[in-house]
Write a structure and sequence with these properties.
The protein is mainly alpha-helical. The chain contains 15 helices and no strands. Helix 2 (12-22) runs parallel beside helix 4 (54-72), helix 3 (35-45) runs antiparallel to helix 4 (54-72) and helix 10 (179-195) packs parallel to helix 12.
Length: 282
Amino acid sequence: MSLLAALGNCGEWSQLYLLEGVGILFQQRLPVITMDEAERVVAKVMPLLHSSNAAVVTAAAKLIIMFIAQFTGKDSPLTATDRSILESNYAPRVVPPMISLLSSPLFEVRFVALRNIQLMINGIFKSYFTPHVRRFFVQFDDPVYIKLDKVDAMLKLASKDTSEAILQELMVYAAENDAELVRRAVYSIGILAVEVPEIAPRCVERLAELIDTKVNFVVQEAAVVVQTVLRQYPTNFEGVLPQLCSALDVLDEPASKAAVAWAVGEYSDKIDNAAKILSLFL
């Protein structure tokens, strides 16, 4: 507790080291202090979520996350009801400070915050970040490596409620000049269709539109991900096959050629001149 007493009386970087020391309490699989003691620790740490130092914010969030994990894990002494109450009391309070770091003027801070948030989304925090999905939309000044990570984060937060907004945003990125971002956006539209069945028809319509653009790298990526969609919904989206076949002259990458060859072979009874089309791949 002496470390906690020092938290409010030292500089930001000293706070960071103290948080790392206090965090040892929650690194064990089983709690080493009582629930009341743990909550007193967290109460002292909570104000640091609003520090002006991004490293302190991240360290404070990490400590609180470890506290939640330790007392809601399978070895927790709490009942299922108490675990649920604990999570709902503390998890939502970690989310806004982490999201605020995405607006930092320092790209390095944005990137580190984004990587930490993605780890949180993979755990119990997904539902707490989902209402904030628009905060993951790409900003005009984001470097490409941050843009790509934001697209990945949006995809992880996709749900029936958020999928329409995400699809619209991905279509904006698919019209950008950066080939890497465009490829990621096109691929993500297909994965969105797989992950959220309710939005799948709209996603396939957009993929068909993108194939019709005949833009080389757009068509390459769309062809590959359409194969993924057709595997997921084998009888639902045969209407996209004509667009795939009409784009054969644009394809020059092995993965996209293989995807179209698979589609033609799989749906040969639905495609005119399927044998002739397949002969083009020989």
